[in-house]
Each structure stands twice: as structure tokens, then as C-alpha cells.
Amino acid sequence: MPLEVVILLLGGMALLITGVLLFPVSGGWLPFNENGLHGLLLVFFALQAITLGKTPFGDMRRSKSLVAAGVLIAAIGMTACFIPVFKQIPRILLFLCFGPGGLLLLARMCLARDKFRAWFKYGGIFHHLIAGCAWSYLCSILLAGLVWRGCLSATPVIAAAVLVYGAAIVYLAGVLRKIYKLYPPPGNRPANDAGLDLDQSLILLMGVFMLLLGLLLVPVSLGWLPFSGSAQLGLLMVIFAVQMLATGNTPLGPYPRTGLMIVLGLLCAALGIVSCIIPGILAPELTLLVGALNILGGAAALVKIRQPPRRQAAAPPGDAPPALKRLFRAQLTMSLLTIMFGASMLLPGLIPGLIIGVILAADGGVLLYLLHILIVLNKMRASMAGAAPP
Asked: What is the pTM of this model?
């Protein structure tokens, strides 16, 4: 399942689940965290920009400036999930993504030679691509008005409109998956200016998440800001789901992307989406789940660090390159911090909230440092491969 399909599928799931839940919300039977939905959707937009170079205004080169803009939008979306009073900036950004962005994408599809006219000429599945894109762009423009008015939970009609948009996104994801299966993209993609592969892009997103959460928990623990714990847990579950579906990486380590892994990833995403938009409904269960996953994942990482492959264990410690030594120390520190965070979730009150914020910020900082080391190691491998004789 290509990453583009994964992100579209999860975004469509978020809208479908929101549409279903808006029916009881509009009747006053359930609470609704509109800010959590805004933040979640912004994270999806940012994820597309960081990993694929796809923006609401068209495809762009994955330059460092685009990745930086994607990280900024992701940080705004995360803050919207964490802090319920942070509303205006996320709403404006989401309106721009849905409204002008949807209109521009629709115009480009109709006018570009390599889109509507070419797809119509190809026929078959590409006719479905035309229908899916047009359906999605028109619904996007409609949803922009609802976002701007701030009335997503007002009536069952709005709930039905969100459902229709979610169905359009899921339909488009299915069409793209079939197209990629029939016409697979080339295996060796051209290098991008950002210098980040998929795994590194997801590490970057998780590092920003942990660092921002830790920094915000400091004023929250002092009573200076409100905090949505259920949206924070939900967003973390969605990021887990993206990693599981796109790369097979889980909090417990990497696994093959089998049918079971896909089902578990979709289940994690569904639980996270519900927790983001319905405050408190799954918070106790997800707290236990995330806490246990952090402890088990940190312990599993410690075991792997203590038992390196034999060819590495046979080499004297002094012969290891400095970058590998730093990588080992970063992995060890991150595993210990992950276990401490998991323990604080399973045993509330064990660690003061202010200290938890410091732990999370340190965990995020170590993740970003780990990303830096991985980039350095990749450059070293590339230079060694270039220097090798033909």
C-alpha cells in the first residue's frame, strides 16, 4: 500500500467516522472536539507535504523549505489537538487547504494536458480517477465553507455532507491503489533536496510530536493552559497507524506488512480518530494501551541494543565509527525515556506532570538527534559507495 494511498485512506476514515458521530453530536448526545478534528486534518496535510511533496495547491519539489513548512503546519495541527483554546489559526489554515486549495486542484485537473484530457483518453480505471478527483475537490470546496462558519456539528445535513466527502476520499484512495498496482512507479525515485526518506520523515514527525507535547505540558502542569489528553492520545495512535501501514514499523518493532498488520493499523487509526473528536470517550483505555506499548517497546529496544549482530559484536568497541557510537547512545537514551513515559501513564502520580513534560521534550530531542545521526550515516555510506572502484 503506497504512502499516498495510506494517507488518503486515513484521511477518508477520519471524515467518515466524523460524519457518523456527528449525527448523535448534532442531537446533543455526544460531546464534540472540533479543534481536535481540525488539528488531525492539518497533520494529514502536513504529512503529505513532508513525505510526498503533495500540498493542497498541487505537487511541489520536496525541498528543505517545503519540509520546514510541513513541519510548521504539523506543529500547528498538534497544538490544536493538545490545546482546546488554540482555534483561529488552525481554522484559517484548514479553510485555505480545503477552499482555495480544492478550487486550484480542480482547475489544474481540468486544464492540464497530462490530467483530465490524458486520463479521459486512457479510459478504464482512469475514468474512475477523474470521477474520484472531481468528487473530492468539489466536496473540499463545500467543506471549506462549513469550516469557516464553524458549524460542523450543527445539523444532520452537515453530518451527511462530511460523510459524502469521506466516501469520496476513500474512493479516490481505492482508485489510486489499483492504478499503482497496474502501473507501478519506478523503483528508484530521484533524490530530493530535503534528503529524507520515508522512515526518516516519520521519525521527524514523531520527534516534533514528542518535543512539542513535552514543551506544552510544562505550562499545562502549572495550570496556565487547558489540555486535551484524549486528543493527544488519539493523534499518537494515528501516527502509530501511519507507521504501521506505510512501513510496518510498530511501537514494538518492525514487522512485515501482512493483512493482519493492515487490519491492526486501521484499528489503531479508528481508535485514534474517535479519541481526537469525542473528548474523554476512549481516554482510559488508550492510556493503558499507549503506556503498555511504550514500556514493551522500550524494553524490546533495550534487548536489541544489548544483543547486537555477531559481526558487530566481534569488532572491538574502539573500532566503531564515532557516528555509530552516538547512534548507540541515542538509542539507549531514547529507550529509557520511552519506558519512563510508559510507566508514568500506567502509574499516574508516579512522576509529577512537570517532570513528564521534561521527559517527553527530551525524548523528542533525542529522536531528532537520532534522525541527524541517521542522515550522517546515509551520507557516509553514499560517499563510500561513490569512492569504491567500479
From this structure: 0.88
Collapsed DSSP state (helix, strand, coil) of residue 32: coil
**Length of the chain as a residue count:** 390
Query: Rg of the chain over CA atoms, in angstroms?
Result: 22
Label residue 315 by pLDDT band (50, 70, 90).
very low
CB atoms inside a 10 Å sphere around CB 278: 23
Distance, CA of 336 to CA of 342 (rounded, Å) = 10
Task: Name every residue whose Cβ is closer than 8 Å to that of residue 312 and which is 6 or more positions away in sequence.
Answer: none
Tens digits of residue pLDDT in 152-166: 666 788 888 899 999
Mean pLDDT of the chain: 84
Of 7, 352, 22, 323, which is closest to residue 164 (Cα–Cα)?
22
221-253 as b/e: b if 16+ CB within 10 A: beeebebbebbbbbbbbbbbbbbbbbbbbbbee
Give dist(CA 239, CA 255) in Å, integer: 16
Residue pair 177/189 in contact by the 8 Å Cβ criterion: no
C-alpha cell at 366: 533525542
Q: What is the 3-state secondary structure (H, E, C) of 181-246?
A: HHCCCCCCCCCCCCCCCHHHHHHHHHHHHHHHHHHHHHHHHCCCCCCCHHHHHHHHHHHHHHHHHH
Summarised one tens digit per residue, pLDDT across range 172-213 is 999 999 999 888 876 445 445 556 778 888 888 888 999 998
